[in-house]
Amino acid sequence: MTWIRDIQRAIDYIENHLLEKIKIEDVAKEANASIFHFQRTFTMLTDCSVGEYIRRRRLSLAAKELSQTSGKVIDIAYKYGYDTPESFSKAFRRQHAMSPSDAKKYRGKLQLYDRLIIQVILKGAEPVKYNIVEKEAFSAMGIKRTYSLKGNENLIEIPKLWNKVNHDGTIDKLCKLNDGNIKGVLGVCVDEGEAEGSIDYWIAVESTEETSAQFEKVEIPASKWVVFEVSGEMPEAMQSTWKKIFSEWFPTSGYEHAGTPEMEVYPEDGSDSSEFYSEIWIPVK
Predict the structure, then answer these.
(1) Cα separation of 62 and 69, whole Å?
(2) Angle CA(72)–CA(76)–CA(78) in degrees, nearest 5?
(3) Considering its fold, how many domains does the chain have in total?
(4) 218: pLDDT strictly greater than 90
(5) Measured between alpha carbons, how far is 270 from 72 in angstroms, rounded to an integer?
(6) 262 touches 282 (CB < 8 A)
(7) Which of 106, 151, 159, 161 has the greatest number of CB atoms lying within 10 Å of its CB?
């Protein structure tokens, strides 16, 4: 349960510093994780980004203070991190569907968010299927893009990249280079670490080719992998399986993420039927 305790410690850190400028790298350190792994784990467990959680909690506390004290709107706006009353009012309306002045007069129902407590789901209705695989280091050939973790750029841009390569012939060219044991197209996520706040994302295939005029080479280190089966229409099946891994499997498995590249593996035919089979490969320790 160390993994769950680390996430809860990070949430407690956020709660203890809500009136200060919170740096995501400091929060991730509390969870003994990189920025990428912490942000992704947090979102999987809570269906809410770290930034959104902080915003919701600050606006919840601000609403309570407005409705229960005689504090001025401008003072409360500054207290909870807003530079101007206008920016505070705009954010307040978005969450509570009323103005700060209305909250002071008890007009309407406030949308309040309580402090998060992470709980373990011991058993899902449909447990994930997986195998443990030991694999030596291998090379992959493909294309690489670097995405910032700020503003969820990676979540927005990666699907666009897949759409592009599926329609411009890139996938067909990659599949011709696939001569390794993993038969499929890889989506490889390489965490750049805390300082950079970015990830390298590869669309590639396992290949023994040394060079390519069109593609780059990435080395995947030897790892113990947990290979999860994913069945069903995309992207819903993939998203659902990721959530189960983080909310059900990791907390009770005794394993931790090894911090090295992880992969999604898709069949070469790119089928989008309800019988679509793919895999999630996560390195563990």
Answers:
(1) 10
(2) 120
(3) 2
(4) yes
(5) 58
(6) yes
(7) 161
